[in-house]
Structure formats: C-alpha cells, structure tokens
Design a protein that fits this description.
With 64 residues, the chain is mainly alpha-helical. Helices cover 28% and strands 6% of the residues. It is built from one helix and two strands. It is elongated and about 55 Å long. 0% of the residues are buried.
C-alpha cells in the first residue's frame, strides 16, 4: 500500500485497514465495519446509550 510516497507491505490479516492505493486481496485484509454494520438499527446519542446501559446494569444488580 502506498504511504508517504513509499510502498508499505501489509501483513495478511494485519490490523491496518486498506486505504487508497491498496491493490491486494481485500479478503485477506481487515475490514472493521463488515458484519457489524448490519446490526445497527438506529443512531442514538452516546449519552442515551450510556444511560440505558447504566439502567440495565442497575436493574441486573437489584435482581441478582
């Protein structure tokens, strides 16, 4: 993959995602958003997510 005017070899299944100029096998590359994207059903503010997690944790603490 070209980086800063030089070609950088990326290890197979490494942690670096392919960027512009990548010309190797995408199936052997890390793709961070692949299947997890299909699990997103709504976009919520982070504060709402954290509040919901805290409420769920509190309810579990009382139940257990």
């Amino acid at each position: 993959m070209p980086v800063g005017g030089q070609t950088v070899e990326l290890p197979r299944y490494g942690i670096f995602m392919p960027m512009e100029g990548f010309d190797d096998d995408l199936d052997s590359s890390v793709l961070y958003a692949e299947e997890s994207c299909s699990l997103i059903s709504e976009v919520r503010p982070a504060a709402d997510v954290v509040t919901g997690l805290a409420a769920d944790a509190e309810a579990l603490g009382r139940a257990g």
